[in-house]
């Protein structure tokens, strides 16, 4: 299609650089540098979308990220689809595919528009008042229909093929906003030698210079000066200029998050990341975020062809596109006049300038007169009319009277400018109401930040630039950089931004939109107030004003003003909704950046893990470790493999990679005293070269973790923890050491990954291990169960533990992690000669359950004391203090009837109970049943030739031999309460 | 109170909606009330409503330092479920679920309770053990909860990634079909309107600055920014701010307050049919009726009264979301916010009388208070009216932290709540 609204000689795009893109399946020509919006307008297309509720035709209102209407879907492939993209932000590239949203079957003919007929019923919050009868219809009918109607675009349907990047950066000065004021600030700071980051959400810096034609700086047009300034900044080593980069979140301690769009404007992004998250910590932040123009509230203010003044000028002066051939202007602000003048000079007919204000500045009326443009001061547009595009406006005096009609194809509007205080407000700064100019302005900064230019309420460019320079220099000085050249910024001419109107422009005819995207009208706001919504937060939530994807950038001030007017209160008394991050919507992928797939969470593998992978192990996730669960042979399933492994360990021996167990080195002159406090056991009494099973409680007396503790030296303990518990145990210890026991001289070091641990368990364990151990007599007499020694194993330094989690003779050999696999392979080969196997966590679980050894977190759950678990022997009787000692004395923790760990056997030995199954005394009671416990561990025990289970049962120790019941969905299983030890109850094999 | 209905809307449509009456008034406070509730959130307003409706106590004021429903009621991710492990929790939360079902009709306000199902993902053997324990206990308590295979979970929630190549593959899920969501603001407004209609005074922008006690220690009323307001009984339902309020009566609460964050995406057409929670990868997600993906994060690590939080918390949450639902990576975060949650040592609430005569407290809901709103208000009203707990909240005492009779759901899950 030809670009019939592109004005030759206007704009800054090169006519020789043509592109082609698609909108709703139709090909359109565009120029390099166009946005989808400017390209559509160049082709005379204003209709870009349908509204949320009423499916009203909507056009292109703005030329920036605040656009509420022209939201499109962008998708070159199903996987790269993005919904709700602002056509005013998305740059065109060759072959770009875009679609309109929320319409069926087509944008021009949308059946959803029948909703408009029901508009009288769809008043604010109508859904809270109906859809309640019959009750079942909510789920079956009403809600699905409402849901289908809501939402704008459609979610992507396939995983995102793109990748995203992340950078951390520090700087002396972060300047947000690359308009003239921000550029001046950046130049001043950079010239002084400060490190500067300047970011701007647009493809090019320049801010308001993009649309203004009247500004002249240092002998050039404002735009040309801005581009020179950017070039100057880019040439400096201490400056980073980031365009297409939105500062979206201002956090504590001057931490600002920026989102950079890297490839969305490129036809071929190659292997660049799609977007990049910048996490910037700045010594000082200069907010030069400008102001956002807002609409006027009158009937039909949403028709395609209605456009903001700054947008119409941007399209003309930057993109060379006329918004219409016959335009009118409706304004309450000086700055819209420039749009009329520029359009008139470019050849559009300007039917009339309707100014809400009674007094028009003289120079503006003179210029209008020169161009032959009529001004109707003290008038208003009563209603804009048209179907898919504005066709006419009716104009009347503000006080009423005769309406006059003007045929137009475009209406340029301006309700004035709202300072962009979002980031300032996110920094926790409070805004203050400025009664003179009827707007909220930044108050005192809370963090080290300064607001300059239009966002600070400075409308005059010369003054704004001066502010910027001063702020830039001050920021540099504060960072220790004085001096430098004064930047060359002489503002010789600028335009006026005076005026503005918040609230509705007189008696409304038709629908006057306050929040375009959410279809909130002035009437809705007034209704909300009538219904008692007097806080602006209530008004917002009841009407959804300001809750659309532009987050109230256009609607907040109008909503507030109308609510205040309805209440008869001053605006500040109604309150202001909180500005939340993000400033504009930010892609999930950008925030996630590298944290996906394998990098979602660290995958921890032991140094022996490669051997397990090579030998067909099946793995399970435990914490962030991958652990070998079992080693199937010859097509075995888990059951068969585990049975074989269990049998082999008890008949010969087995090797187990225990490297994942947490390990903490507790060192210092007070190490013994500290260990006494952290564990229930009397650890200070542990002899050097000895091991002890320890239990750690929380303050409340419940079991927190367990593990074997070795005393390496008088001042040195080697502490082991559960695999999943290692980080929290270290944290728990550090917490107490730093807050409760800071007087103790103790240092804690995580050494989990410093040691690889090979467990060799079984009757042949000693024979397997002995030849490789230097300097330790491994006989039971010389090195009994629960001994440890520092020695060499396979020629590498080792900490050798005689310890068992299987009930067999066992050794755990700690060697420096790098030697793990070679030591493992040597022992594995040696073990094979004795018929030993390798086994995984599943066999480990079965073997320990046969012995009644608990797994913290499985057989205990944070409500179990050491006594409940049958480990009362591990609680020192004579210690005066340890973490949990008071908790353990609380009445309920010593009461009768607590749940205690017991064994369970089923009458059918083949029946394996389900872990988590509940236990009752009376299986015939009605629901809700009184449950007296649950099955914590349950396995088939090949060694016992039957199923075994551990359970927590109320008063369990007193129920030995009792029959209890496990009700399952399809039947009830009778069980007998037993001791929790099923194999070698006397523990003789440990000492073999 | 004039009834809401489709007919009423039609009537108002004919007169430009000018005839709607105020949903609640903003009265001047009386000198004294029978009961003063501190905190006009969902729980406080529900308490007032049930006091009026079921106990005939209508001389009530509900005070709030800000606007009603402006705390955690208006900030949470609106998840409703009752598949808790312990009898005490199952009873309390299921009491609430029973009230949710029918609440719109009871209040004559559509709170949009949507029983779309809450699915909790299991990612490892331990999760499976824990969830199955819940499922067995729930069944015997008469609470619905069922185990789904990964394929069944995906059928219930098509965007779910069940690939075994995921960093933490889904090994199954526990589904409570009666679980779901409701429209949070409507809950506050519905209770406010229904309570106001029964004569309850809702007094907004009225901060409590002190609790006055008589010589014998009993409560006499509250000092406020709008003067002294007498009260025979005071119920404190102040969520994150409970600690400072209770200190005014000389009571030190076993509570810590943490920031908790949430976010929503831009709205899209229906794509996510239920609620999915994963404790293991730390994320909660549903889609609102408006089309936004509503995503909850975990609490900050450090205590604070600031209703904001760090970007790293949101990053971690979105990482989990994109890991479980890779199709959402190109969706955009539209708004994020924070609330303050009050957490007890066992992460279960306190709904009880206090050592101060005439002073009652309802707090400690941590990250999960919204789902309990109707049940909590209902039994707390009973507790205030009768000066003794309902049997459902009898266990939720302050004393339990001294006796050790805890209701520790988080410990039972052996993971962060």
Describe this structure in words.
The complex is a heterodimer of chains A (992) and B (417). By secondary structure, chain A is of the alpha+beta class. Among the domains of chain A are: 1-156, Roll (Ubiquitin-like (UB roll)); 164-291 and 419-493, FAD/NAD(P)-binding domain (3-Layer(bba) Sandwich); 295-415, FAD/NAD(P)-binding domain (3-Layer(bba) Sandwich); 510-569, Arc Repressor Mutant, subunit A, CATH 1.10.10; 849-880 and 890-991, Aminomethyltransferase beta-barrel domains (Elongation Factor Tu (Ef-tu), domain 3, Beta Barrel). Helices cover 21% and strands 28% of the residues of chain A. Chain A contains 21 helices and 52 strands. In chain A, strands 8, 9, 12, 13, 14, 15 and 28 form a 7-stranded mixed beta sheet that branches. Chain A has a 7-stranded mixed beta sheet with strand order 42-43-44-45-41-35-46. The longest helix of chain A is centred in the middle third of the chain and has 18 residues, at 461-478. Chain A starts with 17 loop residues before the first strand and ends in a 14-residue tail after the last strand. The model of chain A has no long low-confidence stretch (mean pLDDT 96). Chain B has 417 residues and is α/β, with parallel strands linked by helices. Chain B has 2 domains: 27-78 and 184-254 and 346-403, FAD/NAD(P)-binding domain, CATH 3.50.50.60; 114-179 and 256-343, D-Amino Acid Oxidase, subunit A, domain 2 (D-Amino Acid Oxidase, Chain A, domain 2, 2-Layer Sandwich). Chain B is 29% helix and 24% strand. In chain B, helix 2 (42-55) packs parallel to helix 7, helix 2 crosses helix 10 and helix 3 (87-100) crosses helix 10. Chain B is globular. At the A-B interface, strand 6, helix 2, helix 10, helix 11 and strand 32 of A face helix 1, helix 3, helix 5, helix 7 and helix 9 of B. Chain B: GO terms for molecular function: nucleotide binding; sarcosine oxidase activity.
């Amino acid at each position: 299609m030809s670009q019939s609204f592109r004005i030759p000689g206007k704009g800054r795009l090169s006519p020789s650089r043509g592109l082609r893109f698609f909108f709703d399946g139709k090909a359109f020509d565009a120029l390099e540098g166009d946005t989808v919006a400017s390209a559509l307008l160049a082709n005379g297309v204003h209709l870009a979308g349908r509204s949320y509720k009423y499916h009203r035709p909507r056009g292109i209102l703005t030329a920036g990220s605040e656009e509420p209407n022209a939201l499109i879907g962008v998708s070159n492939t199903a996987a790269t689809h993005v919904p709700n993209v602002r056509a005013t932000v998305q740059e065109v590239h060759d072959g770009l595919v875009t679609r309109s949203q929320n319409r069926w079957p087509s944008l021009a003919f949308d059946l959803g528009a029948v909703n408009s007929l029901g508009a009288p019923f769809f008043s604010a919050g109508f859904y809270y008042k109906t859809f309640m009868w019959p009750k079942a219809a909510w789920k079956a009918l009403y809600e699905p229909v409402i849901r289908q109607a809501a939402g704008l675009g459609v979610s992507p349907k396939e995983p995102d093929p793109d990748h995203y990047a992340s950078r951390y950066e520090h700087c002396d000065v972060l300047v947000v906003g690359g308009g003239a004021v921000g550029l001046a600030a950046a130049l001043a700071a950079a010239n002084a030698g400060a490190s500067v980051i300047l970011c701007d959400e647009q493809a090019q810096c320049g801010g308001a210079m993009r649309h203004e034609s009247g500004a002249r700086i240092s002998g050039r047009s404002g735009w040309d000066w801005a581009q020179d300034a950017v070039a100057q900044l880019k040439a400096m080593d201490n400056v980073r200029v980031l365009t297409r980069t939105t500062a979206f979140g201002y956090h504590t301690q001057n931490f600002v998050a920026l989102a950079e769009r890297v490839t969305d404007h490129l036809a071929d992004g190659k292997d660049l990341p799609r977007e990049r998250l910048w996490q910037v910590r700045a010594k000082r932040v200069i907010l030069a975020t400008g102001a956002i123009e807002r609409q006027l509230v009158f009937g039909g203010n949403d028709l395609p062809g209605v456009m903001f003044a700054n947008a119409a000028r941007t399209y003309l002066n930057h993109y060379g596109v006329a918004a219409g051939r016959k335009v009118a202007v409706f304004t309450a602000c000086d700055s819209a006049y420039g749009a009329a003048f520029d359009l008139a000079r470019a050849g559009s007919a300007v039917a009339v300038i309707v100014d809400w204000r009674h007094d028009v500045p003289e120079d503006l009326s003179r210029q209008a007169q020169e161009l032959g443009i009529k001004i109707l001061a003290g008038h208003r547009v009563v209603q804009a009319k048209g179907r898919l595009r504005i066709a006419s406006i009716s104009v009347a005096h503000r006080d009423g009277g005769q309406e006059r009609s003007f045929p137009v194809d475009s209406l340029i509007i301006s309700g004035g400018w709202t300072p962009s205080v979002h980031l300032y407000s996110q920094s926790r700064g409070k805004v203050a109401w400025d009664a003179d100019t009827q707007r909220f302005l930044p108050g005192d900064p809370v963090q080290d930040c300064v607001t300059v230019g239009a966002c600070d309420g400075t409308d005059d460019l010369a003054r704004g630039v001066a502010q910027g320079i001063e702020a830039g220099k001050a920021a540099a000085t504060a960072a220790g950089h004085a001096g430098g050249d004064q930047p060359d910024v002489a503002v010789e001419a600028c335009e006026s931004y005076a005026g503005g109107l918040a609230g509705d422009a007189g008696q409304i005819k038709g629908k006057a939109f306050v929040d375009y995207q959410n279809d909130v009208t002035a009437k809705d706001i007034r209704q909300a107030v009538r219904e008692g919504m007097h806080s602006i937060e209530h008004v917002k939530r009841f009407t959804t004003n300001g809750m659309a994807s532009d987050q109230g950038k256009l609607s907040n001030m109008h909503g507030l003003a109308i609510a205040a007017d309805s209440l008869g209160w001053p605006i500040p008394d109604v309150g202001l909704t909180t500005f939340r991050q993000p400033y504009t919507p930010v892609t999930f992928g950008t925030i996630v950046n590298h944290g996906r797939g394998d990098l979602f969470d660290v995958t921890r593998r032991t140094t022996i893990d490669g051997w397990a992978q090579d030998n067909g192990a099946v793995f399970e996730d435990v914490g962030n470790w991958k652990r070998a669960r079992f080693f199937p042979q010859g097509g075995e399933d888990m059951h068969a493999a585990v049975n074989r492994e269990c049998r082999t360990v008890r008949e010969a021996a087995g090797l187990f990679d225990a490297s994942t167990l947490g390990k903490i080195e507790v060192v210092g002159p007070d190490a013994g005293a500290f260990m006494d406090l952290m564990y229930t056991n009397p650890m200070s009494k542990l002899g050097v070269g000895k091991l002890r099973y320890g239990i750690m409680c929380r303050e409340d007396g419940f079991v927190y973790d367990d593990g074997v503790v070795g005393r390496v030296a008088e001042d040195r303990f080697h502490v082991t923890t559960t695999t999943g518990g290692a980080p929290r145990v270290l944290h728990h210890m550090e917490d107490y050491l730093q807050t409760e026991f800071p007087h103790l001289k103790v240092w804690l070091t995580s050494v989990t990954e410093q040691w690889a641990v090979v467990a060799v368990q079984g009757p042949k364990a000693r024979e397997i291990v002995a030849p490789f151990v230097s300097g330790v007599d491994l006989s039971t007499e010389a090195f009994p169960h629960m001994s440890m020694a520092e020695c060499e194993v396979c020629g590498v330094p080792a900490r050798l533990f005689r310890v068992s989690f299987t009930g067999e003779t066992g050794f755990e050999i700690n060697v420096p992690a790098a030697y793990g696999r070679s030591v493992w392979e040597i022992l594995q080969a040696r073990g094979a000669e004795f018929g030993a196997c390798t086994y995984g966590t599943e066999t480990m679980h079965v073997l320990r359950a046969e012995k009644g050894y608990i797994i913290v977190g499985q057989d205990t759950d944070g409500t179990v004391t050491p006594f409940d678990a049958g480990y009362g022997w591990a609680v020192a009787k004579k210690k005066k203090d340890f973490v949990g000692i008071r908790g353990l004395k609380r009445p309920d923790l010593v009461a009768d009837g607590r749940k205690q760990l017991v064994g369970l056997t089923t009458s059918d030995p083949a029946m394996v109970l389900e872990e988590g199954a509940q236990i009752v005394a009376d299986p015939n009671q009605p629901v809700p049943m009184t449950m007296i416990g649950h099955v914590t561990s349950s396995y088939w025990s090949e060694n016992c030739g039957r199923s075994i289970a551990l359970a927590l049962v109320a008063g369990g120790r007193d129920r030995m031999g009792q029959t209890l019941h496990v009700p399952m969905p399809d039947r009830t299983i009778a069980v007998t309460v037993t001791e929790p030890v099923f194999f070698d109850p006397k523990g003789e094999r440990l000492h073999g | 109170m004039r009834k809401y209905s489709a007919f009423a809307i039609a009537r108002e449509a004919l007169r430009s909606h000018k005839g709607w009456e105020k949903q609640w008034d903003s009265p001047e406070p009386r000198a004294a009330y029978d009961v003063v509730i501190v905190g006009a959130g969902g729980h406080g307003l529900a308490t007032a409503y049930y006091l009026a409706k079921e106990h005939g106590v209508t001389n009530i004021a509900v005070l709030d330092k800000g606007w009603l429903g402006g705390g955690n009621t208006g900030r949470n991710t609106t998840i409703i479920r009752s598949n808790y492990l312990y009898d005490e929790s199952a009873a309390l939360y299921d009491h609430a679920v029973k009230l949710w079902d029918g609440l719109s009709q009871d209040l004559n306000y559509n709170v949009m309770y949507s029983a779309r199902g809450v699915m909790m993902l299991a990612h490892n053997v331990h999760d499976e053990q824990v969830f199955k324990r819940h499922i067995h206990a729930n069944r015997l308590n008469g609470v619905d909860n069922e185990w789904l295979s990964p394929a069944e979970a995906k059928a219930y929630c098509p965007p779910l990634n069940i690939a075994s190549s995921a960093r933490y593959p889904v090994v199954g899920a526990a589904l409570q079909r009666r679980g779901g969501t409701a429209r949070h603001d409507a809950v506050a407004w519905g209770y406010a309107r229904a309570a106001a209609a029964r004569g309850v005074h809702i007094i907004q922008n009225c901060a409590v600055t002190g609790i006055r006690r008589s010589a014998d220690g009993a409560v006499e009323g509250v000092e406020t920014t709008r003067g002294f307001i007498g009260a025979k009984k005071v119920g404190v339902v102040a969520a994150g701010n409970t600690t400072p309020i209770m200190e005014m009566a000389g009571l030190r609460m076993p509570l810590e307050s943490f920031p908790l964050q949430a976010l929503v995406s831009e709205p899209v057409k229906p794509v996510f049919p239920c609620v999915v929670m994963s404790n293991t990868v730390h994320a909660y997600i549903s889609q609102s009726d408006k089309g936004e993906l509503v995503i909850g994060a975990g609490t900050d690590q450090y205590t604070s009264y600031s209703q904001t939080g760090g970007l790293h918390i949101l990053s971690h949450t979105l990482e989990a979301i994109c890991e479980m639902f890779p199709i959402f990576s190109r969706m955009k975060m539209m708004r994020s916010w924070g609330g303050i949650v009050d957490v007890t040592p066992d992460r279960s609430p306190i709904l009880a009388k206090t050592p101060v005569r005439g002073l009652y407290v309802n707090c400690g809901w941590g990250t999960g208070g919204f789902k309990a709103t109707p049940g909590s208000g209902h039994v707390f009203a009973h507790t205030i009216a009768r000066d003794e707990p309902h049997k459902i909240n009898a266990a939720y005492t302050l004393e339990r932290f001294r006796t050790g009779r805890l209701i520790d759901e988080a410990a039972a899950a052996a993971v962060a709540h």
